[in-house]
Specification:
By secondary structure, the protein is an all-alpha fold. The protein has 2 domains: 79 residues, lambda repressor-like DNA-binding domains (434 Repressor (Amino-terminal Domain)); 66 residues, lambda repressor-like DNA-binding domains (434 Repressor (Amino-terminal Domain), Orthogonal Bundle). The protein is 63% helix and 0% strand. Helix 2 packs across helix 3.
Length: 158
């Protein structure tokens, strides 16, 4: 996926999510019930009014069987095994993302500040994510994944 600003990522995710729900024959309420996300929040995600956190997007991916990056790109290669996975707790999710980002940055030979600069994100924000002090946002993961040359889903602990 090409680099987008936050509003574009939010809209792209909403459009993709609406398509995923339509393809699965799911209502917004079905998704809310499956994920524990409020119906109003699901409505906002689908309408592109609100951006899900990376953890919420991960929960939606598990519930629908469609990868986060595929929802963002509008390419729907359903991952059969994904829907049968048990979601991690939020804390496990944050720790998993942190480890994956650190490992990929090391492979690419990027120090944390270099990765932040390449991704165009605040170094303090990235540091807090990598120290498990902050949950990453979906936009942050999109920018970091672009900087690392991978898909957002490569940063998620499925």
């Amino acid at each position: 996926m090409t680099s987008f600003n936050t509003k574009e990522i939010q809209k792209a995710y909403g459009t993709g999510l609406a398509h995923v729900l339509h393809e699965h024959g799911l209502t917004h309420k079905n998704l809310a019930d499956a994920t524990g996300i409020s119906l109003g929040t699901v409505n906002h995600y689908v309408q592109g009014i609100q951006m899900p956190s990376a953890y919420r997007a991960y929960q939606i991916a598990i519930a629908t069987g469609v990868l986060v990056s595929d929802t963002l790109d509008g390419k729907f290669n359903y991952s059969i095994g994904l829907a049968s996975k048990t979601p991690h707790t939020k804390e496990e999710f944050i720790a998993g993302v942190s480890k994956i980002i650190a490992k990929m940055a090391k492979i690419k030979g990027l120090a944390q500040n270099e990765l932040a600069e390449k991704a165009g994100v605040n170094v303090g924000t990235l540091a807090n994510v990598m120290l498990c002090k902050r949950a990453p946002g979906l936009a942050l993961l999109e920018h970091v994944s672009n900087a690392l040359g991978v898909k957002v889903d490569d940063l998620l602990p499925y």
